[in-house]
Design a protein that fits this description.
With 339 residues, the protein is α+β, with helices and mostly antiparallel strands. The protein has one domain: Thrombin, subunit H, CATH 2.40.10. It contains seven helices and 21 strands. It has helices at 44-49, 64-70, 93-96, 155-158, 197-202, 225-229, 327-337; strands at 4-5, 19-21, 24-26, 51-52, 56-58, 81-83, 110-114, 127-134, 137-147, 150-153, 170-176, 188-196, 213-217, 233-236, 243-248, 261-270, 280-282, 294-297, 304-308, 311-313, 320-322. The longest helix has 11 residues, at 327-337.
């Protein structure tokens, strides 16, 4: 069964100050501090000095048994469900041509390069850097505009996965089309953060299958983020056998976090953690700072977010895993678009 929605442009309880909304956990609402003319939420120096939030690395030996179990078979979940982005229109062929087999062994093939096009061109302008603070330190991830006031990123960029209200990031700001310290569309303060409750409670490794998060942003000058930069579409319950273009701002060597990097690759293998649904892996050498960057399906035509940079295995530097986007992802997406 397929469905189309059109878009225009651990077991311990969750703390009382964090709400669980259909498998999604939310932070308290952040206060918006009024800005004087020209004042920045983060100065250029603060943005440049923010540490890259590292791509999660898991120990292969400790998870060997889980990896062997995962290698016994591949689960193909289909359905062709999508939400359209601000420009593309759905064609029936998108649903009819779902692959049912494929994949590569490690290392999966990929092509990676710096985005040399103008970042202000759609859909590049929908991607940006996500700045936040945790434990008194400043960090940076990647994120993307998905409609309304909402952005999408990895759960570990917004919450520590420690089943505690103290794990929420603070001072969260999204800077779309960031380049060399410039913020051509301004800085957008997060009003409220959301992650999947499975990530909130379980963290690494058992929460990695749902390492997804997002934020509702305060409008700027009475305009939503999607009214300024547009938004990417959203796809869930598609076949695992896909070709994605990943995006993000990696800052670990050989990158410096100042430029948007694109990495195009195809499905390689099932995730290496023992949780459900199994994550999907592709060839990639993106580093810390790219966490939360979108995996875009049908890039350049349909532009559907269908994954995000989450983790790799510690000895495999040329791979990246993302949660598989099923109804869990759609639940979080729906929650974010309510804001």
């Amino acid at each position: 069964m397929s469905e189309t929605i059109s878009g225009n442009p651990g077991s311990s309880p969750v703390p009382e100050d964090t709400r669980d909304l259909g498998g999604n956990s939310s932070s308290p609402v952040a206060t918006l501090q009024l800005q004087t003319e020209g004042e920045e939420l983060w100065t250029m120096e603060e943005m440049e000095e923010a540490e890259p939030c590292n791509i999660i690395e898991i120990d292969e030996d400790a998870l060997k048994a889980q990896m062997e179990a995962a290698s016994q078979g591949v689960s193909v979940e289909g359905g062709g469900m999508i939400v359209e982005g601000c420009e593309p229109e759905l064609e029936d062929a998108d649903i009819d041509t779902q692959a049912t087999s494929g994949g590569y062994n490690y290392p999966g093939p990929f092509t990676r390069f710096e985005v040399f096009d103008d970042y202000r061109v759609y859909p590049y302008r929908c991607v940006g850097k996500l700045f936040f603070k945790r434990g008194g330190r400043s960090y940076v991830c990647s994120a993307s505009s998905i409609g309304g006031n909402a952005i999408w990123t990895a759960g570990h960029c917004l919450h520590a996965g420690n089943n505690s209200s103290s794990g929420w990031a603070t001072n969260v700001v999204f800077v779309p089309a960031y380049k060399d310290g410039a913020a051509p569309y301004g800085q957008w303060k997060a009003k409220q953060l959301f992650v999947r409750t499975a990530w909130y409670r379980n963290g690494i490794p058992n929460g990695l299958c749902q390492d997804m998060g997002g934020a509702i942003l305060y409008p700027r000058n009475n305009r939503k983020i999607s009214q300024v930069v547009g938004w990417l579409g959203f796809a869930w319950n598609w076949s695992r056998y896909q070709h994605w273009c990943q995006f993000g701002y990696p800052a670990g060597s050989p990158f410096n976090g100042r430029r948007l990097i694109e990495n195009c690759s195809s499905y390689a293998y099932n995730g290496s953690v023992n949780c459900s649904p199994k994550p999907v892996g592709v060839g990639s050498d993106l580093t810390g700072g790219s966490s939360g960057g979108p995996w875009i399906l049908k890039f350049g035509t349909k532009n559907y977010v269908n994954g995000c940079n989450s983790y790799r295995r510690s000895r495999n530097s040329q791979e990246m895993f993302s949660p598989y986007f099923n109804n869990n992802a759609k639940s979080l997406f729906d929650q974010l678009l309510k804001g």
